[in-house]
Amino acid sequence: MKEKILNFISDNPYCKIGDLCSQYDGKKKDLMELLKTLEIEGDIIKEDDSFILPSSLGLLKATIVSVKKHCAFALIDNEEDDIRIEEEYMGNAFLGDIVYLRYMNGLFKVIQVIKRRYNDIVGEVIKDEQNLVLDVNALACENIKFVIKEGSASVSDIVQAQILSFDKTICPESASSSCIMI
Q1: How buried is 169 (Cβ within 10 angstroms: 0-12 exposed, 13-18 middle, 19+ buried)?
Q2: Is the pLDDT of residue 172 over 50?
Q3: What is the pTM of this model?
Q4: Which residue did the predictor score with more confidence, 163 or 92?
């Protein structure tokens, strides 16, 4: 049934729920659950009350499979080889995240994180120029900093933390840095 729905949306971009109900043999509740699952997994995009495939918007669904100091690699769904993403185009994506990519000017860019692999991260607390940050070895490119809330840890502590927010303003020392508040 999943393939039938995906094929229908592919052939009928911006279709409405009524259009899909006419193609679906089951209960409307089951269809709604399937559509929600497809949306959460990044297989479809719900825009207003319409459904469309990411590919119709020039987006590619991929998983971040490796993170290096200044780049990352992603595996696009249904492809054999991974592709390179320069750190300035990673946005707030980390290792294991499922993302939408767009190919622009010869480079891949993360457009949106669809699903986070890790809700919690573990690392050692270190001090940078202004903040206590979490050193998380190969989870994110070098331009991402995981800032620890004041008073919640000390240098050299090993901590488990949850991501609270993505905020470029708490890292003013470099326009190319982004901070994740934990």
Answers
A1: exposed
A2: no
A3: 0.81
A4: 92
